[in-house]
Design goal:
By secondary structure, the protein is of the alpha+beta class. The chain is built from 10 helices and 12 strands. It folds into 2 domains: about 80 residues, Phosphorylase Kinase, domain 1; about 180 residues, Transferase(Phosphotransferase) domain 1 (Transferase(Phosphotransferase), domain 1, Orthogonal Bundle), CATH 1.10.510.10. The chain is about 30% helix and about 15% strand.
């Protein structure tokens, strides 16, 4: 995906400015490919907010589309669905277009890098996968697909709750019209999204559907559990496309000669079946079945692994990882020898 901004670019807003007569700018939080995000204060109630801006002169405008998606999500749900950030305000100044949203915590890419081995435990990986599927189910129910599902677009709560928020809807698109009719499938489409996590169909120029969002979840789940994807160091679309088609991410060799989790295998098999079904563009993915195959958070066999899962804190800038890769491997091996569990049986039927 092209990028127009870098971290060295001047801030589009200054600390102390007030947006919409209500939101006081504090400082820049981060720079995305096409915009900047600031932390602000809602002067009416003292709540911290996130303010995303893009230049009115930018060749690619994404905020208007993102605002439409978030407004639609709120209208469809009657109130704001919990996995999607709440939109407070939007508009334009003389130089920028802006949107004001709920402020959330660190994203999943940051959290993974904070672990000892840049890798989540099996338990955490499955929990994250389940939350991602649930978040996308909420979005898809509003008639939109995301089209850029990747770890930075999932953030944890600031309140210390074990929740994921889906963010950044600039690339999102309707798959269902306002009147409820399905949009017709296009014969060919240009590439959208992030090369590392894009679906095989996206690489091949096919029109994307709800299943393509879930393909990205599959790649993320494998990356979280294994540490990295084989194409991590390549951003060339054709090279990555071939690797995705040729490499079996669930081969026992990749999982230290143990079975890959059944839930990830179930997701992969569902996606492969959808690719061979011409009508899958119009079908709803089996979200419930996918989530039912995922590990139960409360299952007693997972108490040891639970100690290794990362824990959320209430601070935006302080979230720690509570496990190491060496300890994780020791516990898994000990569990296998004692009959407590195997990697392929970390699932509640």
């Amino acid at each position: 995906m092209h990028s127009e901004l870098s971290s060295g670019d001047a801030a589009m807003l200054k600390g102390g400015e007030v947006i919409d007569g209500r939101f006081h700018i504090m400082h820049m939080l981060n720079v995305g490919g096409f915009g900047q995000v600031f932390v602000g204060i809602d002067q009416t109630n003292g709540t911290q907010v996130a303010i995303k801006v893009e230049s009115l002169k930018a060749s690619i405008q994404l905020i208007e589309n993102e605002v439409e998606c978030l407004k639609n999500a709120g209208l469809c749900a009657g109130n704001w669905p919990s996995p999607i950030v709440q939109l407070y305000s939007s508009g334009c100044t003389q130089t920028v277009r802006y949107m004001v949203m709920e402020l959330v915590g660190r994203n999943m890419r940051e959290l993974k890098k904070m672990t000892a081995c840049d890798q989540f435990s099996i338990y955490t990986s499955l929990w994250v996968m389940r939350e991602m599927v649930t978040s996308l189910q909420y979005l898809h129910a509003t008639g939109w697909i995301h089209r850029d599902v990747k770890p930075p677009n999932f953030c944890v709560s600031l309140e210390g709750q074990r929740r994921l928020y889906l963010v950044d809807f600039g690339m999102s698109r309707r798959y269902k019209e306002i009147d409820g009719t399905m949009r017709r499938k296009e014969a060919r489409c240009s590439f959208h999204g992030t090369v590392r996590y894009a679906s095989p169909g996206c690489h091949e120029g096919r029109d994307v559907s709800r299943f393509d969002d879930l393909w990205s979840v599959y790649f993320i789940a494998c990356e979280n559990a294994l540490g990295e994807l084989p194409w991590r160091h390549s951003n060339e679309k054709e090279t990555v496309r071939k690797m995705k088609n040729e490499i079996d991410l669930l081969h026992p060799q990749a999982w230290q000669m143990m079975d890959a989790p059944l839930s990830i295998r179930c997701l992969r098999d569902t996606l492969i079946a959808s690719d061979s079904d011409d009508d899958s563009f119009y079908r709803e993915p089996p979200y419930a079945a996918l989530n039912q195959s995922t590990v139960s958070i409360a299952h007693p066999s997972l108490l040891l692994i639970d100690l290794l899962a990362f824990h959320f804190t209430c601070s935006l800038h302080s979230l720690t990882s509570q496990f190491t890769c060496r300890l994780m491997n020791c516990l898994v091996l000990a569990g296998k020898r004692s009959g407590l569990f195997s990697i392929g049986k970390l699932l509640v039927q």
